[in-house]
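Final report, results section. Input specification for complex C-07:
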Amino acid sequence: MQLDLLNQLRAQVPLVVNYANYVTPNFVANGLNALGASPIMTSEVDEADDLVKITNTVVINLGTINHYETDLVWQLCTSAVKYHKPIVLDPVAVGATAYRLDIAQKLLQDFPIAVIRGNVGEIAALAQVDWATKGIDAGTGDADPAAIAKACATRYHNVVALSGITDYITDGQQLFKVGNQTPLLPLTVGSGDLLSSIIGAFVGITDNYYEAAQVGCAVLACTGEIAAQPLHSHEGGTFAARLLDKLTIVDKEDILEILK
Amino acid sequence: MQLDLLNQLRAQVPLVVNYANYVTPNFVANGLNALGASPIMTSEVDEADDLVKITNTVVINLGTINHYETDLVWQLCTSAVKYHKPIVLDPVAVGATAYRLDIAQKLLQDFPIAVIRGNVGEIAALAQVDWATKGIDAGTGDADPAAIAKACATRYHNVVALSGITDYITDGQQLFKVGNQTPLLPLTVGSGDLLSSIIGAFVGITDNYYEAAQVGCAVLACTGEIAAQPLHSHEGGTFAARLLDKLTIVDKEDILEILK
Amino acid sequence: MQLDLLNQLRAQVPLVVNYANYVTPNFVANGLNALGASPIMTSEVDEADDLVKITNTVVINLGTINHYETDLVWQLCTSAVKYHKPIVLDPVAVGATAYRLDIAQKLLQDFPIAVIRGNVGEIAALAQVDWATKGIDAGTGDADPAAIAKACATRYHNVVALSGITDYITDGQQLFKVGNQTPLLPLTVGSGDLLSSIIGAFVGITDNYYEAAQVGCAVLACTGEIAAQPLHSHEGGTFAARLLDKLTIVDKEDILEILK
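Structure output:
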């Protein structure tokens, strides 16, 4: 894994244009800022092209997508193609509503998405694998997250980062796992959104999206473990602040030392 | 008071669909998550029915309501009636603008709202009691919060949770008070929004809305006292994180020990 | 500098109506609340007049402005003129997109803005000074932030607060500097937004906008230094909570003791 990307990110300070949901943008922006990237959010179609022109990456988060803003999302992606900027898609709760699933599939059809980052339910919904429609049960062989991630990556010809207790990163053929975790990360609303935007930051500084997704997952999972170390498993409020603290100083060596 | 609802909530993990304001959704979502419920926010009318179908409760918060989203609010409530899901209304600042008051009254006219949660000014505006229009003065007999809460509950045939230094919960006839408090809770923006959504979570797991509102008020007020214990009364920033920490572990016994 | 305005603010509890961006409203509202002001956010044009009628100040933040909400912004400003309430403008990233620059300039043309608060890039874009269009380099004489601030204030006939490592406050002729700083303040997303709204709170309690802007800058910069004192320079997450804590108790003497 090219963990040197972390130093490269801090040297380059990539700009990440986010179409964010309205629940977690503050946490995501603070997380990107803490790590060393530069976040900007937008809600206006008429400035999309200007922003994408100067950005390193576009991150599309469907957490509170609505029909007033779909033209903005399409313009961000159209400009991303025009200026050869990578796109990361976070298909939040895409398994919960037909509206979100439809938007996500249209995006995947219309644009070359570099990386999809979601949890097992979201990735399974996109992969449209048989077992997914019967519900996800991580305990059965059929519902192996690695297989779901590969099916999704193969279907849409991109990199998939399926995050959970173990993160599975795949380009459809190769598979990389990150086994670091803390219960405090899923307790923190927006930790998945942040992971997508962090992957977005790394995707913005290398053409190797598979490596970028690995590094993004490793950085957040390991920093989470480090931040959680002195805390009890219920201290989610305190953890969120400490996670931001640690994102600013975590380095390659810290990660290599604990990476699973 | 049926404090066993707290254990039941954690066992059941109710889904709470929130039409949230855009100021405090992160805090509200983290608070619900910390307590053991499952929050989701939406801003799209076309996914409202899908979400309400799978939810336990709908919480409508008028904090930043606008005419682009009133159809979403009406659809959420229409679907709530269709699928027999309870609705909690937070009439934020309904006394401050005619627009908000009008929306709140139309909602109360069109839909069976299970619980209204507001402060004394908001509840008085809805109750349209004579004294309210002259301004609220907690020191006069006429402006007794308990009477205002009862007038509001009687007028709209629902449960009212009027929160403040003392919380008053009433179904129009019975009255329950929660006397626990800390100055740090009102110092935290969104603590009222969170209370409404917590009541929403409890309303989603029992048909007894009066009990659910009592338990919601008791849980937040007591957890606030517990979180505030080692802090000075100015440490609102630190308190917000500690409140989330404590919401995850507070149990029936902790609450019974300090409940006033 | 009239630091007595801080006591006056806490005695008067000015209402600050914010057209906020959707990234940092929670932090801004908590900061205003912690300091002793009363924040309200809105996203509905039909309630703008009602809110401005009862407010002390209107703060317009362009951080996520879009064409759905420009009528709201114009109505807020129109009502502010009608009711003689001051307006503070935060031209977020106005140098990054033509859309934002156009909106900011139209606002400045149509309404008497009391104070513009921005960073050197934003103020230079508004000032349209030659050197600004070549990029800002703080090291060259041409790009002197004080000169940029003066040019902007002269152009639009208002007070400009250009914030950065040093804050420059000017009415176009006089210049006041605040030299207090901590690296943790720029690490905190929304600290600029909060500064604009804090200046808004002070502008709402005095006709001397130049003094109000000075006090606003001094209060935030000095409170930042105080909050940062026991922290390492990477602890941005912890700092944000401590900043809120300290905003509640910081007083005139604390500020005078460390003001540079």
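Confidence is low (pLDDT under 50) at residues 131-141 of chain B. Chain B touches chain C at residues 21-24, 26-27, 63-68, 93, 96-100, 187-190, 234-238, 240-241 (CB under 8 Å). This concludes the modelling results for the funded period.
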